[in-house]
Specification:
Order of helices and strands of chain A: HEHEHHEHEEHEHEHHHH
Structural class of chain A: alpha/beta
Number of strands of chain A: 7
Mean pLDDT of chain A: 88
Strand content of chain A: 5-15%
Shape of chain A: globular
Number of domains of chain A: 2
Number of helices of chain A: 11
Largest interface: A-B, 58 and 57 residues
Oligomer: homodimer
CATH architecture of the largest domain in chain A: 3-Layer(aba) Sandwich
Strand order of the largest sheet of chain A: 3-2-1-6-4-7-5
Distance between the termini of chain A: 66 Å
Low-confidence stretches of chain A: 190-194
CATH superfamily of the largest domain in chain A: SPOUT methyltransferase, trefoil knot domain
CATH topology of the largest domain in chain A: Alpha/beta knot
CATH class of the largest domain in chain A: Alpha Beta
Helix content of chain A: 40-55%
Chain lengths: 261, 261
């Protein structure tokens, strides 16, 4: 059997991306949840787990719940404070159960965030951390302040009790699917040199901030009821990716609109 | 508070779709998995659970794992054979861990299957069943024969041990997101008969005509020297593809800009 089948090349590209994604569990109470999270990671190809100040270190209950993903548990980094867990990460994303409308602009849904993370981890070969807070109360404001992005998994507003390992499962799944889409695209693209470079997550954020401002200025959106317009456009541009020269056109146009006022 | 806020209308449309989706667990061994599946369902807004010939009926372990989704457990239908669980369903989808290309069925990935299920459950108001097999061995060939579609969740080929409640979680999540996209589209669309399909080449031409006019109006481009701006944006949107609802946002914004003049 050859090692260079298209499937193997794809899988190896995928692994390269997914190993740059670290799951960080902050002050987790139940060791069973650590084990279930390890299993959820491994089944999607993620390997890097960090435990920040866990109530106790992984035990038999963790191993039982990990269902043979014990390698992930055993190689997990255990640190006392969050900063040590993310010091080598270029992108830090915090999970949030809040749907607070006043924060709505900064919160991405799990799908577009998975696309952003995969792009970052594959293109820039940069470490990305996804933070999961306490089972009961999530991440504190201080911890959230260390994140460039917040991600929210859409849930039933009447019952949003998503288990922490299930949240890990969904985000790991989104990362795998997005990384798979990227790996497939780059494998099928003949000519990748002619394109100029992709913009960074910060550039994209800057664009959407600017877009939001203009949309409000021209009364296209009501800031009190933004109707998911920005998240939908984020998804569109996450699908395509945006090159620097394209971003210049899009931003130039926003500036030209503002000059009309 | 009014009951007719856009959010409430959206949520009620969503509930209408999701209540048509039944999770069917066939011959499940561990009652804890039933509880965890109930929680996974409820957090995504699904309510209809059927247990086919379970090794034992939901017990304390199921209740503990359900984390207050006990209503789903208590209202679960328990039947002796699979046919009784799906007799009122127009669409039956079986989950499969196999990636065997020789299988006669058309295997869909979880994302496109979620879209298919949501469309079915919303448009046709038809009951849809998603079948989950035994923890150890999945669905038998006889059970698979009752399905119109098979769905596969992409996993790590070296470790595909996805917990059954996690599989329920991912598919329930995909159904919710697909149903949300459908509900959002129909809520923002004047003409709800159109589906959220990709726009046609004619629609794209119409958009770029409109865009060009606005760009000239706001002095962003000089009609005598348009600098390839439109062709570059055409390339961007060709990469992503544009859905009808996205096109509505983009065109709506152009119209809002024109109203400012």
């Amino acid at each position: 059997m050859s090692n260079n089948t298209p499937e193997n090349v794809l899988e190896s590209t995928l692994q390269g991306t997914l190993q740059n994604i670290r799951i960080v569990m902050v002050h987790t109470s139940h060791t069973g949840n650590m084990g279930a999270a390890a299993r959820a990671m491994k089944v999607m190809g993620l390997t890097d787990l960090a435990l920040v100040n866990p109530k106790s270190t992984p035990d038999d209950q963790a191993v039982a719940m990990s269902s043979n993903a014990t390698d992930i548990l055993h190689s997990a980094t255990i640190v006392d404070n969050l900063k040590d867990a993310i010091s080598d990460c270029q992108l830090v994303v915090g999970t949030s159960a809040r749907q607070d409308r006043t924060l709505a602009w900064d919160i991405q849904d799990s799908r577009s965030c998975g696309e952003l993370i995969a792009k970052h981890a594959s293109t820039n070969k940069a470490k990305v951390a996804i933070l999961f807070g306490r089972e009961s109360s999530g991440l504190t404001n201080e911890e959230l302040a260390l994140c460039q992005h917040l991600v929210h998994i859409p849930t039933n507003p009447d019952y949003s009790s998503l288990n922490i390992a299930s949240a890990v499962q969904i985000l790991a799944y989104e990362c795998r699917l997005a990384a798979l889409a990227l790996a497939t695209t780059s494998a099928t693209k003949e000519n990748s040199k002619e394109e100029d470079e992709w913009v960074t997550a910060d550039d994209l954020d800057g664009y959407f901030e600017h877009l939001k401002k203009v949309m409000i200025d021209i009364n296209f959106i009501d800031p009190k009821n933004p109707r998911y317009l920005i998240p939908r456009l984020r998804r569109l541009y996450a699908r395509s990716g945006i090159s620097r020269s394209e971003m210049n056109i899009l931003r130039g146009m926003l500036t030209a609109i503002q000059k009309q006022k």
